[in-house]
Design a protein that fits this description.
The protein is of the alpha/beta class. The chain has helices at about 30-50, 75-90, 100-105, 125-130, 150-155, 180-190, 220-230, 260-270; strands at about 5, 10, 20-25, 50-55, 95, 110-115, 135-140, 165-170, 170, 180, 195-200, 205, 215, 235-240, 255. An 8-stranded parallel beta barrel has the order 3-4-5-6-7-8-11-14.
Length: about 270
């Protein structure tokens, strides 16, 4: 049975004609940049009839190497910037948490708490996130089968929280490479909870550049179109006005100016698959 997860006036569910869009830059680089991105994403979402949740990470704790950047702005300053953005632009916010102690400080800010893929089996992190009764969006680990996602769901449900999203971001296929098993993605719909497709991390090449991950941006569009045929709840798409100069995940982020065309294509396929 398909379950609906509500966020204010937003209804998140599979097999919907109004898709969720979780989007923003990978990392909070500066306030001016994220305001520019958020303002344009609001416009693109309204034009294409998506429900937008703005995503931005304050810290990239999972790094290929200690030589690559984790953050540009302090944790406390990041909270202030995102809080002001949320209040000024009236948009819901999500970000990823890496430790249980971060959740207390972020609970009032975040509308959706994101669990990173590599931490999707960390019981304490999931338990504390679920106890907030906020929506918990779990990125499915690259090392997990789709069937094993049920164990994560049960951990959250055991905290009396059924506000759950599951995000598909590919499975490891040898070294430095990910593939998407669309049969498995469709399988996860039987758990009932909304499934989100992460278009940009699915094309990541983990550790592919030695001290950092690479990416294959040219596959974002075809994978997004394929996922749209499954009638999922939404899409997770990181974007930047100049990905080549982005501080994190540039090789797999979408150019901001290409977002409207992609959103329009996804919508058309999603509705045709009804």
């Amino acid at each position: 049975m398909s379950k609906k997860v509500s966020l204010g006036k937003i209804n998140i569910k599979n097999d919907t004609d109004r898709l969720l869009l979780i989007s923003g830059p990978c990392l909070l680089e500066n306030e001016r940049l994220i305001r520019n991105i958020a303002t344009k994403l609001i416009k693109f979402s309204n034009e294409n009839k998506y429900d937008l949740v703005f995503k931005c990470s304050f810290d990239k704790a999972n790094r290929s190497s200690g030589k690559t950047i984790r953050n540009k702005i302090s944790f406390e300053k990041s909270i202030d910037i995102l809080k002001n953005l949320k209040e000024d632009l009236k948009i819901p916010i999500t970000s990823d948490v890496h430790e249980t102690k971060q959740i207390d400080k972020l609970e009032s800010l975040l509308d959706i708490i994101q669990i990173p893929a590599f931490l999707c089996r960390q019981t304490d992190l999931i338990r504390v996130a679920a106890q907030t009764k906020k929506i918990v969006n779990v990125k499915k680990g690259q090392f997990l089968s789709h069937r094993e996602v049920e164990n994560i769901i049960l951990k959250i449900e055991n905290q009396n929280n059924n506000r759950i999203l599951i995000t598909e971001r590919g499975n490891s296929f040898g070294y430095n490479y990910l593939i998407n098993d669309f049969k498995g993605v469709h399988f996860m719909k039987q758990f009932g909870y909304p499934i989100v497709f992460d278009s940009t991390h699915s094309v990541q090449l983990p550790g592919g550049m030695g001290i950092k991950s690479g990416g294959a941006r040219e596959y974002v569009v075809p994978l997004s179109k394929s996922a749209a045929s499954l009638r999922l709840a939404g899409f997770f798409i990181e974007t930047h006005p100049n990905p080549e100069k982005a501080l994190s995940d540039g090789p797999n982020m979408m150019h901001l100016h290409n977002m409207p065309k992609l959103l329009n294509s996804i919508n058309k396929i999603n509705k045709a698959a009804k």
